[in-house]
């Protein structure tokens, strides 16, 4: 390192960024920011760089006649410099034809190609700027096409959709329109098809799309993006072309995006080897002895279904355990671990494995779920990403490690999507025993597929569904409510006040106000604000996550005289509860993790020269400069999808008709099963009933069929009739009982500012829920 304009005294520095071919021995100028990487220490994060080019006449002649440019001797180099005495390199790249008298056509072409390989990057990047793409994407484009970049973009910008992550159809279409490419070109139709197949999977969660839907949706997309009529025949021809070219895959009329097709295929190939495979024969006497030892050690008596689960887990190489809350999944896992250890003489003290790996591997899709596994079993547990060494959500580029160990237990498997399941199964060594645990009635994974629910449909895999509720004995009515909802029934006492749950009638406009009153009562009793979690299906609207977060932030963490940082619609303050939105394995924080802002550092004090937020995620300190704040949001209220895999002492679940699009049985079920001690349902009973009655459509996947099992047509298309299903009538009768809903609660435009509706809860009620003030 020869020169720097920042405070850096070392003669060497690690440079990190998206950099083209760096040639040893050449000298470069890098521009960027000094950052402190948690693992690699101080380094320069490069935003742009250039190769040092000689500028003086003599230097240039020497350079152009060097071994970089075969066929150019000193004389020719002198002639070239004479033609372009100033801005030589740029001049040649801009107007190479002026050298036609100096070099033959062939030589000129080769020379310009070489020159642009060496020096064209910045020129090309500056020309790319007119398309207004993020600079990271510009680098990616240049990396791939090098000196052909501008040509590719001019001739077929749709190619970018296939080859550059981050460029979707709409961006490419905009470039194409600017470049005058016809709206009915095959290239445009193909890009539209690929875009439709992928977005359909990402938005709906299906792993394929029926050809006729693809046709319809693609024509819609192509016709709405530009004013043009698209002929169905031309689209069909292009579907066939993409299939024959391997850019899409098909099974009959089901059309798949490549990575999902191969991920499902991978899951099938790996798991079919494990189907029905007996890992160990254990006779009845031996099993009895083992189970008695385990029961004595854990001071519990397993019921016959639970014993069956432990037996199957011991004897099959692949076993699936499912069950609702409080049915004893964790209790069974503990039993499986102990029984496995007894059978295989495994020492369960991880500290005694200094040289060998601990043979029992516990993983879960989220950090929180992994930590809970670790707390409940007292054995190591990690996220799937961490265990596999995957660094990001971009699974295509991450190869990951193979697993080592002899027993793998995966909890919260319903959250694992098709891509991650494929990665996980691919990493399992042939002799490893695999146990998947989850609750198939919860929401499916955020990403495409419903691997857990699908695997449970395959009879070749040993599985047990626990259905007896054991938590009942502990006076929990939340668990009963959950099981009722799972079975499509709101219990008759749904609106009654219970020690651990209550129901408050509210319309959407009152939701923030009521939540505020509940939160105040919570605070007044000295409870920890972080232990009260609001779970909402939607972000927008008066009763949406964003608004409720603002209300709760003002209550739980008012500004007072401190600093706050604004970011988009949100402000962040020290002490705020925040949610991490993506997987960041290198920093050990994951999608769904909840943390606290411990400090806000203004740009003038930071090395990044940007404002920084310091957070603690269960003691793990993470610092994000402003550029990374999109990875976090406030977490007083959060989406039900993001709450999967987490549990909270007290939960408030609003359900009102303005969420109507989202109201579904497994959504409500997932929300209320997050509550450990108390649950407040807030909303209108109609909406709760709609949610319970509406069985969400099954996702369309091809996994089950791959195992030779036919899926009935009705299952693939879900419960289309659900919206018309009459909800349980029992509820209708009790809804009005016990519920305070005076007229004044209903806000109109006139009274919205003047009334302050009080919630239908008394101090005694709050005492019952939250304890003495
Ligand atoms: N056979 C049993 N006899 C007595 N109590 C049991 C039995 N099985 C489970 N329990 C008790 O039931 C409660 C719930 O069990 P556990 O936590 O294992 O269920 P879970 O399915 O993991 O629940 P969740 O999914 O809500 O965490 C625990 O208190 C546990 O001790």
TrEMBL record:
Species: Pseudolactococcus chungangensis CAU 28 = DSM 22330
Record-linked CDD domains: DEXSc_RecD-like (cd17933), SF1_C_RecD (cd18809)
Coiled-coil segments on the chain, per record: none
Annotated ATP-dependent RecD2 DNA helicase OB-fold domain residues: 8-54
Protein name in UniProt: ATP-dependent RecD2 DNA helicase
Binding positions (ATP): 326-330
Keywords of this entry: ATP-binding, DNA-binding, Helicase, Hydrolase, Isomerase, Nucleotide-binding
Pfam short name (any one): HHH_RecD2
Functional description taken from the UniProt entry: DNA-dependent ATPase and ATP-dependent 5'-3' DNA helicase. Has no activity on blunt DNA or DNA with 3'-overhangs, requires at least 10 bases of 5'-ssDNA for helicase activity.
Transcription recorded as keyword: no
EC number: 5.6.2.3
Gene name of the encoded protein: recD2
Swiss-Prot/TrEMBL catalytic activity: ATP + H2O = ADP + phosphate + H(+)
The ATP-dependent RecD2 DNA helicase SH3 domain, residue ranges: 549-614
UvrD-like helicase C-terminal domain mapped to chain residues: 634-681
Domain ATP-dependent RecD2 DNA helicase-like helix-hairpin-helix span(s) in chain numbering: 117-208
Similarity comment: family membership: Belongs to the RecD family. RecD2 subfamily.
EC category: isomerase
């Amino acid at each position: 390192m020869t020169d720097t304009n920042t405070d850096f005294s070392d003669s060497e520095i690690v440079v990190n960024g998206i950099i083209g071919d760096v040639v040893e021995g050449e000298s470069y100028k890098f521009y960027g920011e000094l950052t402190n990487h948690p693992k690699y220490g101080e380094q320069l994060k490069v935003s742009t760089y250039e190769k040092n080019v000689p500028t003086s006449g003599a230097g240039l002649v020497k350079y152009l006649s060097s071994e970089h440019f075969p066929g150019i001797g000193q004389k020719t180099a002198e002639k070239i410099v004479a033609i372009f005495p100033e801005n030589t390199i740029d001049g040649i790249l801009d107007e190479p034809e002026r050298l036609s008298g100096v070099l033959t056509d062939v030589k000129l072409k080769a020379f310009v190609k070489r020159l642009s390989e060496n020096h064209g990057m910045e020129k090309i990047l500056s020309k790319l700027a007119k398309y207004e793409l993020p600079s990271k994407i510009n680098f990616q484009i240049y990396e791939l096409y090098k000196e052909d970049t501008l040509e590719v973009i001019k001739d077929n910008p749709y190619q970018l959709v296939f080859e550059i992550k981050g460029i979707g159809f709409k961006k490419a279409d905009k470039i194409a329109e600017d470049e005058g490419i016809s709206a009915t070109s095959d290239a445009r139709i193909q890009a539209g098809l690929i875009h439709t197949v992928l977005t359909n999977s990402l938005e709906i969660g299906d792993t394929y799309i029926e050809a006729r839907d693809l046709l319809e949706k693609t024509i819609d997309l192509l016709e709405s993006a530009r004013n043009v009529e698209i002929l169905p025949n031309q689209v069909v021809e292009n579907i066939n072309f993409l299939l024959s070219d391997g850019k899409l895959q098909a099974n009959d009329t089901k059309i798949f995006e490549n990575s999902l097709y191969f991920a499902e295929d991978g899951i099938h190939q790996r798991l079919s080897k494990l189907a029905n495979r007996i890992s160990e024969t254990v006779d009845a006497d031996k099993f009895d002895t083992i189970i008695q030892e385990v029961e004595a050690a854990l001071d519990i008596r397993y019921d016959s279904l639970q014993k069956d689960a432990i037996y199957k887990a011991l004897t099959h190489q692949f076993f699936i355990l499912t069950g609702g809350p409080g049915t004893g999944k964790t209790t069974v896992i503990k039993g499986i671990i102990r029984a496995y250890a007894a059978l295989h003489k495994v020492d369960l003290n991880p500290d005694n494995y200094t040289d060998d790996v601990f043979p029992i591997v516990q993983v879960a899709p989220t950090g929180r779920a992994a930590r809970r596994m670790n707390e409940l079993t007292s054995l190591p547990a990690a996220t799937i990403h961490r265990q596999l060494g995957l660094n990001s959500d971009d699974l295509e580029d991450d190869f990951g490690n193979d697993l080592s160990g002899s027993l793998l237990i995966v909890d919260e498997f319903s959250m694992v999507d098709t891509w991650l399941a494929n990665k996980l199964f691919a990493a399992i060594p042939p002799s490893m025993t695999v146990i998947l645990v989850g609750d198939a009635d919860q929401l499916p994974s955020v990403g495409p597929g419903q691997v857990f629910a699908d695997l449970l449909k395959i009879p070749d895999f040993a599985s047990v569904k626990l259905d007896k509720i054991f938590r009942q004995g502990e006076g929990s009515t939340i668990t009963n409510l959950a099981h009722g909802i799972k079975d499509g029934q709101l219990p008759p006492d749904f609106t009654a006040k219970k020690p651990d749950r209550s129901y408050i009638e509210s319309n959407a406009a009152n939701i923030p106000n009521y939540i505020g009153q509940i939160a105040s009562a919570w605070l007044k009793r000295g409870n920890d604000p972080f232990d009260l979690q609001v779970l909402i299906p939607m972000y927008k609207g008066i009763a949406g996550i964003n608004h409720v977060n603002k209300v709760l932030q003002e209550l739980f963490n008012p500004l007072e005289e401190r600093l706050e940082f604004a970011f988009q619609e949100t402000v962040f303050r020290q002490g705020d509860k925040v949610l991490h939105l993506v997987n960041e394995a290198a920093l050990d924080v994951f999608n769904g993790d909840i943390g606290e802002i411990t400090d806000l550092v203004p740009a003038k004090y930071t090395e990044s020269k940007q404002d920084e937020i310091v957070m603690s995620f269960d003691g793990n300190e993470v610092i994000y400069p402003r550029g990374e704040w999109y990875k976090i949001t406030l977490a007083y209220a959060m989406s039900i999808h993001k709450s999967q895999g987490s549990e909270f002492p007290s939960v408030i679940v609003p359900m009102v008709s303005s969420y109507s699009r989202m109201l579904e049985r497994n959504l409500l079920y997932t929300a209320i099963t997050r509550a450990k001690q108390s649950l407040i349902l807030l909303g209108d009973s109609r909406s709760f009933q709609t949610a319970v009655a509406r069985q969400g459509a099954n996702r369309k996947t091809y996994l089950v069929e791959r195992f030779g099992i036919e899926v009935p047509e009705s299952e693939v298309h879900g419960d289309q009739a659900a919206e018309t299903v009459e909800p349980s009538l029992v509820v209708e009768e009790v809804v009005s009982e016990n519920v305070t809903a005076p007229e004044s609660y209903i806000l109109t435009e006139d009274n919205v500012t003047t009334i302050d509706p009080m919630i239908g809860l008394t101090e005694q009620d709050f005492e019952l829920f939250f304890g003495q003030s």
